[in-house]
Amino acid sequence: MYKIERLLVALDLTEMDELLIKYSSHLAKFLKSEKVYFIHVAKDLELPEDLKKNYPDLMAPNDESMADSINKLVEKAWDSDYKCEKVIEIKEGDPSDQILKWVNIKDIDMMVMGRKRKLKGGGIVPQKVAKVVHTSLMMVPEGFGFKLDKVVVPVDFSKHSKLAVEEALSITEKNKVDVSLVHVYDVPSGYHKTGKNYDEFSKIMEGHAKNDYKEFIKKNEFPEDLNCDYVLDEDNSPADKIFEFASDQKADMIIMGSKGRTGLASILLGSVAEKVVVYDSEIPLMIVKEKGENMGFLKALLKL
To answer: For the chain, how many structural domains are there in total?
Structure first.
């Protein structure tokens, strides 16, 4: 797993910013990050001509005044004792496009974005960015103060699950954090043709999952005492099962890979990861991606 040296925190000049800065100050400490970029993208820094004509004394907020305001908030809200370089960036244009470009330009290792429930501002930009950004993503729900005693990692034994487990172990190695893995499995629709009933075949599927887990641990040289729970998905809602398990475990963070065993370019989120991103949850979520994979695909998207 690559070291997360550069964080990019997306700010939108709402109440959420202070929470994100506070959370990032502790996240950077856990990750031992060297540099944190705080970026705000304004759709337009210029006032409309009719407003300037009718109100000649009205001043549009410029990038310098915005940067100064954000810098003061960073100084106020950065409440961990961790020292690292902090950079303020003000950009103009489409928020999603600008964020994706700056992730590339600044060689960002992980993005930090907010997940809003009641605060003003929508979640469209985080969802759009999460789908295509080529680096890992941390989504912080509103109202969550930093705490990291328990981490849950959903696994399907794919290479992206491997990345998620590696990241969890890296974060928790020196911080005494409990890591718990969970595998959500289901029963194939044609199980009745085998002569087995649903309960019998669910036991068979659980047995296969346990065998796959043993091979997964052995192949990747993970600690043998790493615990994994197995959850049957009876209603084709793996995202629900993941969050229900994490909630029961009182998890402070969910860390998962961006894709499962199948799918197209891994720069895009898999179906389960995408559902988890939009899930209305109070648990912070880290989506781990293989940095730089399919960069050509991203560049093509940005040109559209």
So the answer is: 1
Cβ distance 288 to 256 under 8 Å? yes
Q: Which CATH number does the domain housing residue 91 bear?
A: 3.40.50.620
Question: CB neighbours of 211 closer than 8 A, spacing ≥ 6?
Answer: none
Q: Is residue 95 part of a domain?
A: yes
Tokens encoding 280 = 């209305």
Kindly list the distances between the CA atom of residue 297 and the CA atoms of 110, 130, 223, 269, in Å, as whole numbers in the listed order: 19, 15, 35, 13
Tens of pLDDT, residue by residue over 222-278, are 998 898 999 999 888 888 889 899 999 999 999 988 765 544 333 344 555 555 655
CB of 125 within 8 A of CB of 115?
A: no
- Give Cα separations from 218 to 157, 182, 289 (angstroms): 11, 17, 22
Domain that holds residue 14: 1-145
**What's the CA gap between 296 and 304, in Å, rounded?**
13
**How would you write 201-252 as a 3-class SS string?**
HHHHHHHHHHHHHHHHHHHHCCCCCCCEEEEECCCCCHHHHHHHHHHHCCCC
Identify which of 152, 197, 159 has the alpha carbon closest to the alpha carbon of residue 177: 152
Relative to beta strand 178-185, strand 110-115 is unpaired
Burial readout 230-250 (b: 16 or more C-beta within 10 A, e: otherwise) = bbbbeeeebbebbbebbeebe
| Predicted model pTM | 0.83
Does any domain span residue 105? yes
Q: Which two tokens stand for residue 15?
A: 């109440």
Which tokens is 281 given? 């949850």
Side-chain half-sphere exposure of 268, counting CA atoms within 13 A: 8
Helices 124-132 and 271-278 meet at what angle, rounded to 10?
160
Is-contact 100 50, C-beta < 8 A? no
| CA separation for the pair 198, 211 (Å, rounded) | 20
